[in-house]
Structure formats: structure tokens, C-alpha cells
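FAQ: What does a multi-protein file look like?

Like this. Sequence, then C-alpha cells, then the next protein.
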Amino acid sequence: MSFGSAVELNVTMALSWLPLIGDYTRNTTAPFKASLVSVSGYFLGSVAMFLIGLLTVLKTGLSDFTAAVAQTNLGLIALLIIVFFDGDHDVYGRVFGGY
């Protein structure tokens, strides 16, 4: 993946969660505080996800996370990790986000 593609992916991933923050906080009595908590949670989750990917690439030399997990000889556990943590699994956003 080129540097430009990686930057685009990171920015798009971060911005894709912004509409959900509005959904999460629309019925609160303290919208600023609720928004700050939501943004902080998404930020920490994104940093953790990118850090896991970075450390995996640095340790294994593979740029594909699923290939790295598959090479760990974890078998079914690796398959479950790939299935449940890769791809489109944003049910709340699809149901309540209006898209």
C-alpha cells in the first residue's frame, strides 16, 4: 500500500465514525460532555487498532494483518478473529445511523 493510500485510509476510518457520535449523543442533557466521551473512545480505539497493525507489521514483516494472524498456527481462533474483527460489523451504525 502506498503512503498516500495509507493516509487516505486512516483519515477515512476516523471520519466515518463522526456521524455515529451525533446519533449517540442526540438525546443527552450534556451534549458537549457526551460528544467528548464518544470522540475520546473512538480515538483510543482507533489508536489501539492502528498500533496493533503497526506492531504486527514490524514484528512479522507482513503487511497483511490477516496473513500474519493466519501464520500463527492458531487455526480456528485465527479464523474467528479474521471473521469477527475484519470487515463491516457496524450494526449500530447501520440500524440507527440511517445509512
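And here is the next protein:
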Amino acid sequence: MRSPHLVRPRLALLLAAGLTTLVTPAGVAHAATATVPATATPITITSTEQLAPGVTYGSFQVTTPRGVTVGYLLTADLKKNKVSLDLLHPDAVAQRTVVSAMTNEQGAVAGVNGDFFNNSETHAGVTPTYSSSGPEIADGEELKFAVPTAQRFGPGLAPGTSTRDVFGVGVNGKARVDTLSLDGEVRSAKGTIALGGLNQYALPVDGVGLFTADWGTASRVRSTCGTDTSRSDPCSTHTYEVTVRDGVVTAVGPTPGAGAIPADTQVLVGREGGADALDDLAVGDRVQVREKLVSAGNPKLAFAVGGAPILRDGAPLAGLDTKTAAVRSSAGVSPDGRTVYLVALAGRAPASAGFTIAELADLMRSLGADAAVNLDGGGSSTVAVREPGQAAATARNSPSDGTERLVANGIGIFVGKH
């Protein structure tokens, strides 16, 4: 990071990236021409630099009733034809790794952590899958869908939002906050079964889920635990699993299994009514499985990561928490969908006063976002950056665990990837 003494040139870089609301360089008075909404959060920019044309990185601080909070901001100008976003992810959905490793392995210039994930378990004998709560789309490939909202990890959601909400980028190159649904079915001569899940750690009650090679080797038992109203409810005792290879049922059984799934194989897991439906299938039956994720908005999404909406049409959502302050991460987008703001707060004292979710929404609005989501926080909050001339990206925000936490996914900024 460059010295914070060269404030004005670096501030100009940040403003060029689209940050047009109130920002105050350390030790410099507010500009007389600044125009700021009355509710904007006063932000002191302490440093910023250009990582690549259209991509900036910097630090800021905000004074809260609990003290000063330090944060880190990445901006990406998607109008630049070589700048894009995509999902940072491990080799499998049910796996985790640190943000800096994902950033380096996938060739991003910078990244932040992503969605909340299944990081702990209360069900006896069941291990965490480490898969995310919400959907994932990477480079146009649909990796997973969302668990029932009651089965997510993380703080409470704003009314009217769910685990199906995502931050993503459409095939037109514009970022947006959207909602995904799963359209899928299992067809055989014995009938049609609706799909209720895709590579997810929890299925809806009475549902059937599809697991593919993208899932990895983790046990599929967790998908039948909890209910649509409580994550801690017991695992279902009424389950069934069907293995399909090249469109033909090759194995059936009453218990979800584990282990790698070959590329030519699909595994169907059912619980309660879904188990009854799968029980009608027999070895040798021909089966056609179809699934796709459908966005509420247009066009279709080429990248998506689960996130909890906190800002819509430039206004914080009703019902956001105003009491619990924590280290947080967020992703936001400008009204035209072309400028993306990725934020991670400092994780360790003395700069870890944190934000409430309501304060986070105000921050993202002040940065210039029209829509934004809350991402996983606490020890998961990480920003990794590879500065010009550096061989590898490293974590910059002193994560609160003392070292980088292994996480399910993240958001990467790429230059020249596509």
C-alpha cells in the first residue's frame, strides 16, 4: 500500500472509479462543492490506489457511536471491457478455502469473501458440509441452489428476502441484486418428480434434491436434516437415494451416501414425500433429469453468489438490525449496474468497532450503491489484493480470527479473464 500522505491523487482515482458521495481524505477539510444526501455516512478515505485500469483499492474509516471503524473498499468499473466479476470458489461446492488462495488460483486481481455457509453442526454424527447457504453461478455454470431460508446461517434477514437472493452479473455485463428459483424435474415412465434442490446442504421437507460431480465428496446426509422452520430440528428418518448413470438408474437405497460423484452420474436424494416418490424408481429404469436456475430479472446471470439484500433503489430495506455491531462484508452496485463496490471491515482491534446491518446499508449508499447485499462477516470477512508488480494476492484487513478463515466462496475482480 502506498503511503497515506499522497491523499489527493489517490482520492481522484477513487472518484474516477465512481465514488461520488461524501469522502474526506484524512486531514483534509470537506470540499465546498460536495453534495451529499442528508443521511449519507461521512467517510474518511485514508488511502486508495489503482490496481488496474477500472479497478481501485483503498481504505477508509467511519466514526460510529462505538468508536472508529476501519474498512477496505474495492471498486470495479464494468464499463471497462477487460474488467469483470466472477465467483471465487474451491474445487467443490462442499469444500472451503481462504479468499487469497481462491484469488490467486483463479487469477483475480482482488476479491472478498462471499456467502454464509454450513460451518458448524448440531446434529449428532453429522459433519458440516462447508457449502454456502445461497445459490452459486460461476462463469455461467450453475453450481448450486439455495437451502430453505430457516436453514441458513448468519444474522436475520430483512422482511421479504430469502436465501434465494443473490448478487450477480448478467450476460450483458451489468451487476445487480436478483432472486433465483430452481426449475427442475425427474422424468421416467413412472411419472414426473419436481426437483427442490441442487447441490445444497439442506432440502425442503418432502423434497428431492439433485447432487452432481460439482458437490464433491461430502456426505449427503446433512441435506435431510432440519426442517423448513428450524435448522436444528432432527434429521429425517424417512429418506431415499437413487443413483443415475447416463440416464439409467444403477443403484437405490434408503440412506444418503458420500464420496465423489462421477461426471456421468447424478444422485437424487429425497426426504419424506420426496423419498416416497424416489422409492418408485428401480434399477434399470430410464430417467431424465433436467434442472436450471431462473432469475427474476433479465438477462440471465453469468455469475451469482448468495447475499442478504440490505439496500434497494438507493434506500435501506425496512427491518434491518440496528443493535448488533460486527465485522462485516458487503457487495453493492451503482444505479446503472456498471460500478461495483466490495467492502470488508477490519477484523481486529483497535479498528474493529464494526457496523450494524443498518449502518452497513447506509455505508453502501454513501459509497454510491443503489442496491447492496450483506455477505458473511466476523472471521470470514476478508479482502485479498494483488497490487501491481506483486506475484500473489494477500489478505489486507487483519481478519478477526488472526488468520484467514476457510470460507465457501467469494467475489473476484478479474482483468482480461473473458
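Q: Is there any per-entry metadata?
A: Some entries carry free-text notes. For the entry above: The radius of gyration is 22 Å.
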